[in-house]
What we know:
The protein is of the alpha/beta class. It has two domains: 23-52 and 298-392, Aspartate Aminotransferase, domain 1 (Alpha-Beta Complex), CATH 3.90.1150.10; 58-293, Aspartate Aminotransferase, domain 2. Helices cover 38% and strands 14% of the residues. It has helices at residues 26-39, 58-68, 83-97, 113-124, 139-147, 167-171, 198-209, 264-274, 283-293, 297-321, 344-355, 381-392; strands at 45-47, 107-110, 130-135, 151-156, 178-183, 212-216, 240-245, 258-261, 324-325, 333-337, 357-361, 372-376. The strands form two sheets. It has a seven-stranded mixed sheet with strand order 2-8-7-6-5-3-4, with helices on both faces. The protein has a five-stranded mixed sheet with strand order 1-11-12-10-9. Strand 3, helix 5 and strand 4 form a beta-alpha-beta unit. Helix 4 (113-124) crosses helix 8. It is globular, with a radius of gyration of 21 Å. Its EC number is 2.6.1.-. One of its GO terms (molecular function) is transaminase activity. This is Aminotransferase. Pfam families: Aminotran_1_2 (PF00155).
Amino acid sequence: MSTLTKSSLQPIIPTAERLGDVQEYYFSTKLRELAQLQRDGHDVINLGIGSPDLPPAPEVISALARGAQDPAAHGYQPYTGRPELRQGFARWYQRYFGVDLDPEAEILPLIGSKEGIMHISMAYLNAGDEALVPNPGYPTYRSATELAGGVVRPYELSAEGGWLPDLASLEAQDLSRVRIMWVNYPHMPTGAVAPAGFFEELIAFARRKRILLVNDNPYAFILTETRQSLLAIPGAREVAIELSSLSKAQNLAGWRVGALAGAREYLNTVLRFKSNMDSGMFRPVQEAAVVALDLGQDWYDELNGHYRRRQVLAMRIMDALGCAYDPEQVGLFVWARCPTGQDGYAVSDAALYANDVFLTPGGIFGSAGREYVRISLCATETRLAEALARLSTAP
């Protein structure tokens, strides 16, 4: 049987121009390589992608199983999600962020927040429109912009600047073609937290420049002292919308459950695109997600207990590699600067091919990340300790 890798078939039609320079997602190709190394007998410790290895709460799994037994549960679902799911997100926002949202109009459930990034880009970018994209930042902001026909306009972040955009420098530039600004705090990949007053400055900047802010907020609960929502800032709903996800803090990554929150006018525009792309999540998944959203503080405390212990080991790995990091960073990763003269790709390759430990090179997040490397906390303490042992004895 022929395979994609061995085929010599020549397509009879050309690739769509919208693909441009967009390549297959880095982790999509890398995971195939790691799988091949495993088949070849290598015991690879994967400290790359942020896919939680811990299970959802037992009551969440029970709700899914119970719902799947209902013969009426298997049909198409509302394009705006089930009312009880929207209400669950509204309770969650009020309880943990102090934000009051109208579940009928200001919450749009998504099949994962990554889906929402594409929907927002398609709904608001015309060909040639610009999007401000953080460098370093989540690669999907860039690819979604390009797939929608937009132009990526990177804004540089640095450790010296606290991994925050220089709003004064941006304001001095011609931003007349900018329609969207992607922000992400707590920030991935750096683990930076937005300091007091920054969100207010960001809202004021967006209002002056008439730019739609999109805050991608999946790490709000991971190792953070306080939870932040851009929508908690007075006046935010005039210029901002926010993505949330149950992938990280509720361990539902493979279930694909997220939401877009904000003013109905923005969400209705996104829905015009989204409703032509999917037919909603499986009903039992939505019902179980409601249970996950109603989990108490004890759930998050236990989850973060695991991640704190893992973070200690991940930082020890960075020490063994001679990398420098901020011990106050939050989120699901540890981000560190490589030793002088090395870049993240070289450090990652050395760890993988000499010690069977995969670390993410910071360069995949943009040019400003080339001198960095990232470790995911989505591995057991046993595996992290084994990675530490391998890398500590490396020549």
